[in-house]
Amino acid sequence: MEINDLLNTESVIASLRVTSKKQALQDLARRAAEITALDERAIFDVLMEREKLGTTGVGNGIAIPHGKLGSLDRLYGVFARLERSIDFQSIDEQPVDLIFLLLAPESAGADHLKALARVSRLLRDKTVCEKLRGTENAEALYALLTDSTETRAA
Fold this sequence. Notes:
43% helix, disordered C terminus, Mannitol-specific EII, Chain A, 6 helices
């Protein structure tokens, strides 16, 4: 499972202007609805239900909201670099400025977990996050996100 299996350039938002976690999830659900052709409200509701279980703000300014929807045919991602950091009730109590939304079919099982692990591994890389935070162009963000770890290690 690679990041380019989850994202395309239309699913990268270079400068999302939001002031709250709820607004961020609403805007991300709207973009995900455009990409997946699913109902925006259904996506938002799944994300909010997941947040009730515990925050997806994983620390270091990063959130990875995720959920499963029965009508999806594959995994989808949406990445947003926020214009300003917001409170996301993160585990480290720090504001969030990078959000990677992950949506999976109900039947995804291990693939959903593999995708979450892959996204988490990518966003734990401080160098990658610094570059993402310093980039204001969707195509450049997409290139940074989809650059394989093997390439970065070389």
